[in-house]
Write a structure and sequence with these properties.
single chain; 2 strands; globular; mainly alpha
Amino acid sequence: TDSPTPPYLATNLQHFQATLARLWTAVHWENKNKETLWRLVVDGIPLPGNTHLSRVPIKPCECGSYGGDTDQPYSPRMHHFWECPIAKAVREQIDRHLRLLSPATIQGGITRQQLWLVQAPTGCEQAPWDVIAMAALSSMEYGRYCLRAATREQRQQGASTHGRQQQTQTRTAEQGPRQRAITDFFNRLGGFTQEEDEAANTHPSIYTTQPTLDNAVQTTASPLDQAQA
């Protein structure tokens, strides 16, 4: 017989099922902004090495820090939606704006459980966090595609793929996709705020400054400012 599910896992599963139901009924936002979260839950993102693609060899990430011969095997979701420089760039924006100090890490910041399970960090309102988490995951996925396209274009232009020059080219290829992922994240937040504002027939009153990799700034409406309790 199958082993019984530990009580804490059963509780987390029940809580997350309720979270998904809330997101799909109470958060009035286009489903394209919710799709990445749903596919992440069911391991449905087409990443070689996922459970439904277990026989497909793991494909190295274009960032150069995952998928090598010496890597320990683990779900590619951990890399692409948490450890990849593209994912980190989005997470850093959340940490910077919310100024959170998490006991889970020495450096502080949001935890993977808070992001993946849409659990608002201490001191944050749940409703804005629903939008922030879904927008962040969607932008990480968008950035992954951008990085893949950028490196493919780089190869087509005859970029070197050996030694130190390869590392330099990889970092160069990352720069554009990182910025596009950040911009996409803030655009999604601003788009949600605008839709919500139009539905309420009011004018946006909360704005946030969007940091960029080149220290430029862009002002856009955002639930990030509404998240702090």
